TrEMBL record:
This is Uncharacterized protein. InterPro entries: SWEETIE. GO terms for biological process: carbohydrate metabolic process. It comes from Citrus sinensis.
Length: 253
């Protein structure tokens, strides 16, 4: 029920709120209150570590993160940033427990598709078929969604959860000042160093690539001014460190 309610809020935001709307502030306030309470509820339940409700909570977290991403201006929920950052850095702070993201293909520029490793299909349907992974516990589409997948339950809940965490991480990264960005990059660097000899390292590298790309794309939309050299150098150092490993897959390269 809670997940459906948050999903309805997302539909409302997408239909009636835009950065240019004169009444967006008035309409946004109750939405922000509901989402902030949802985030607090997530934090409270997560602290209790109740395994029997984890599947339902994962869906609730997914819906909540999607709702936050649909808001036009991340500054409007700045007070929620610390909780969101804690939640969305889970793939880096607890990398061994997280799935490998499937968002890399989505974030890469389609104009570079000829570089591989994903060769574009003849049309959008073939592209969607090639990207389909399937999952018996995947999210079912809602009746008010504008863009419904041609294939039901295209991904597992765990993979969808990681995807939404990393996409939201990108928005959080782009919304921070330089010191905040460097702090988040430090978490990523620590994850990259800690997992080099672990079985989950390849999945972790993909998640790092997704988080950084999501952050860079969000920066283009949110920040007209250029980044400081320290932040850019840190991002470059992470990418160079990944390339230097040698055993990365084609999509990560």
């Amino acid at each position: 029920v809670l997940s459906t309610a948050v999903d309805a809020l997302t539909a409302f935001v997408r239909c009636f709120l835009s950065p240019d709307a004169a009444n967006s502030g008035i309409l946004l306030q109750p939405v922000m209150v509901y989402l902030s309470r949802a985030l607090s509820y997530i934090s409270t339940i997560a602290a209790k570590e109740l395994p029997n409700i984890k599947p339902a909570m994962d869906i609730f977290i997914i819906r909540t993160l999607i709702a936050y991403q649909s808001l036009p201006d991340p500054v409007s929920y700045k007070s929620d940033h610390p909780q969101l950052i804690k939640l969305c850095t889970t793939p880096y702070r607890d990398a061994s427990a997280c799935e490998e993201s499937s968002c890399l293909r989505l974030l890469l520029d389609k104009r570079d598709a000829w570089l591989g490793p994903w060769i574009p299909g003849r049309d959008w349907f073939e592209d969607e078929l090639c990207a389909f992974q399937g999952g018996k516990d995947g999210l079912m589409p809602c009746v008010w969604e504008n863009e419904v997948s041609s294939f039901p339950q295209p991904e597992t809940i765990k993979k969808t959860l990681v995807n939404q965490m990393l996409l939201c991480f990108g928005i959080m990264f782009a919304s921070q000042h330089s010191s905040g960005m460097l702090s988040l990059l430090g978490i990523i660097e620590q994850c990259l160093k800690a997992g080099k000899k672990q079985s989950w390292h390849a999945a972790s590298v993909t998640n790092i690539c997704v988080g950084l790309l999501a952050g860079l794309k969000a920066l283009l939309n949110l920040r007209p001014q250029t980044l400081g050299s320290e932040v850019l150098n840190s991002i470059q150092a992470i990418f160079l460190s990944i390339l230097a490993e040698g055993d990365i897959c084609a999509s990560q390269r």
